[in-house]
Design goal:
Layout lengths: L6 H4 L7 E6 L8 H15 L3 E8 L7 E4 L2 E7 L12 H7 L5 E5 L5 H12 L3 E4 L8 H5 L1 H12 L4 E4 L2 H11 L6 E3 L20 E5 L8 H14 L4 E5 L5 H10 L6 E4 L6 H10 L2 E4 L8 H8 L4 E4 L2 H8 L4 E3 L5 H13 L12 H17 L5
Parallel strand pairs: 1-2, 1-5, 2-4, 5-6, 6-7, 7-8, 9-10, 9-12, 10-11, 12-13, 13-14
Antiparallel strand pairs: 3-4
Helix pairs in contact: 2-14, 3-4, 8-13
Length: 382
């Protein structure tokens, strides 16, 4: 699915552990959390750790058990099929009857989270929680986030370690949970793709990409709305929306309404085709990701790692990246003309120069293993 592992780069002397990762979603499903779990679990397995990923399957079409790159994958049914609640009671038995040294819960925003935390507490075993927070297209669901966090608070406070994927996320959940910021570790997502083929950016016909699940909060519709104004400057410009999701029909209708069918394409790239994604980033003159909320988007870090200019909104985790000069940002309330102007400025700007180490997945894995060692030794957060 991805580049070969470099064991020398991963080197560490931690005794083999039995690690249970619990995540509502896992490849072949696509997404940032899914990629995080896949990339770190396989590296841990390559180092000799026994790693099991416990996840769900709402489709009923994926294998119940398989081994991939040394990682044991266990899938259990979840309901409802067309919602993101992920009611999966069978996970309780898997957690409470399985031997493990540390449980790492990846993601807080489904019913998998409280069930897994309660099961770990029942077992009297340590668990680690990485939030992997994101937005939602439903205003009602966004209004419920506070209630959701309130219900999770007594469970999350029992975690041996809380992890944010960015400083923003750690500070955000420190406030929401009423837990000192010092109790959090920050482990960012990796920025790592296979080498891109020899693709060249076309200055006369720039390719703009917007990557992410086709949900309203991801902001693809904002990029589409700005595109006619950008085409006044670049008549041959192209737009590629990369993703799948419930808003596909709405986005296609918007493209048709604006008469952009000849220059806008919408469609997913399968999670396993990492080389295709690398080629797309290498060819793109700009990645525009105008989400309402992102903690530390994997796609943005991958684009930056290949030198692709990135334009984002200026809220949530994007503000942190904009302050470092990693991305350019535009206010979320900007109208389509202002967004187009910002896109043009980003395309025409000289290549960004910033002193920033972009962590790769090996960096991420080493940090997580160090946290597990501290947890098992009873050492406090650093």
């Amino acid at each position: 699915m991805n580049v070969a592992l470099n064991l020398a780069e991963l080197g560490q002397d931690l005794a083999p552990l039995d690690i249970l990762m619990v995540s509502a979603r896992f490849p072949p499903l696509a997404g940032g959390t899914e990629m995080h779990v896949y990339e770190t679990s396989r590296r841990m397995a390559a180092l000799g750790h026994r790693v099991t990923v416990l996840t769900t399957d709402r489709s009923g079409q994926l294998p119940e058990a398989e081994e991939r790159e040394g990682v044991a994958i266990i899938r259990r049914p979840a309901w409802p099929r067309d919602r993101d609640y992920y009611l999966a009671p069978a996970l309780w038995r898997e957690i409470t009857t399985r031997r493990w040294d540390v449980l790492h819960l990846q993601g807080y925003h489904t019913f998998v989270a409280p069930l897994a935390m309660a099961a770990a507490i029942r077992m009297g075993r340590p668990f680690v929680l990485t939030f992997h927070s994101g937005g939602h297209s439903s205003d009602a669901r966004n209004r419920m986030r506070g209630l959701q966090v309130g219900l999770l608070r007594p469970l999350a406070r029992r975690a041996a370690r809380l992890i944010g994927v960015s400083q923003f996320e750690a500070e955000h959940f420190s406030r929401l949970l009423g837990v000192p910021r010092s109790a959090f570790a920050v482990v960012g997502n990796g920025a790592e793709l296979p080498p891109a083929s020899d693709r060249r950016r076309d200055s006369a016909a720039p390719l703009i990409i917007s990557v992410g699940r086709l949900e309203k909060y991801k902001g693809h519709h904002r990029v589409i709305a700005a595109f006619p104004y950008l085409r006044e400057k670049y008549p041959a410009a192209r737009l590629r929306i990369v993703g799948e999701g419930p808003c596909e029909a709405m986005l296609r209708a918007q493209v048709a309404r604006l008469g952009l069918e000849d220059c806008v394409t919408i469609g997913a790239i399968p999670a396993g085709q990492r080389g295709t994604m690398a080629d797309l980033f290498a060819e793109a003159s700009l990645m525009a990701l105008l989400s309402d909320y992102e903690a530390h988007p994997v796609a943005v870090m991958e684009a930056v790692s290949l030198g692709t200019p990135v334009l984002t909104g200026d809220g949530s985790g994007f503000a942190e990246l904009a302050e470092r000069g990693t991305v350019r940002a535009v206010p979320p309330e900007s109208d389509p003309l202002a967004v187009a102007a910002a896109m043009i400025a980003a395309i025409e700007a000289p290549p960004a120069r910033f002193d920033l180490h972009l962590p790769n997945w090996s960096d991420c894995t080493r940090q997580l293993l160090a946290i597990y060692a501290d947890v098992l030794a009873g050492r406090p957060a650093k």
